[in-house]
Fold this protein.
Amino acid sequence: MNRVDQFFKNNDPKTNGKALTIYYTCGVPSVEKSAKYINKLIDAGADIVELGVPFSDPVADGVVIQEAAQKALINNVTIQDVIATTAKIREQHKDTPIVLFSYYNVIYKYGVEKTFSEFANAGGDAVLIVDLPHEEQQEIFEDLEKHNLHLIQLVAPETNESRLNKIVASAKGFIYMVTVNGVTGQRTELPVDLSKKIQKLVAKSPVPVLAGFGISNGTTAKIAAENCDGVIVGSAIVKKFLDSQYCSKNSIESACNLVKEIKNALS
């Protein structure tokens, strides 16, 4: 069974809290330290990891993730490095689901089947391709299935009923519900109509629904997760490393404390 499916099958929200997924840009502060810090964040309470492949021309990422990606690119981080980091995480955490988070250009250039094969062999479980529209995903389904990888679907706040039904029909693993219009980044509050949109998606979805974009602390996480299965947090965690001159002892401690705060709020 895919580790994503296994996690949600075994996770009891009443006992363990709702799911906390974290996003981490691989290569910040370095490839060598990425796995070390991600393992610490898992130990602090992260249930699922989205491992970000740095890309030069992002369209969905806000300033924090953009800056992290640029730093990683300066460090010459490639998709091969991200796959190698996956293997290092897997050495310490056998069951934690790992999602490859990328833009399609990187995967296409490296080779779709090659990417999926190497990622799966390293211990990966799912792929999230930000800029590959649902209408164009069919060409990669065969390679995903061959390597037992799920494609995580994105649903935007303004996704219409017809398109939503199509997305839900092909959903595997979990659905990423984007909470706000715009790019990633920390926010102090979420849209007032978010709960209704989440409830609508949850009612249709055959797989768990996780809410992401704009979740920065325990308070916003609790609000976002009220009507779904958990949350996804990226910028708020990545910013800890950018603000602390690249992963000093204080930065990893601060990031771990944030993970603990959010996980406690989801309990």
User: Anything to note?
Assistant: Residues 3-261 form a domain with the TIM Barrel fold (CATH 3.20.20.70). Residues 181-190 have pLDDT under 50 and may be disordered.
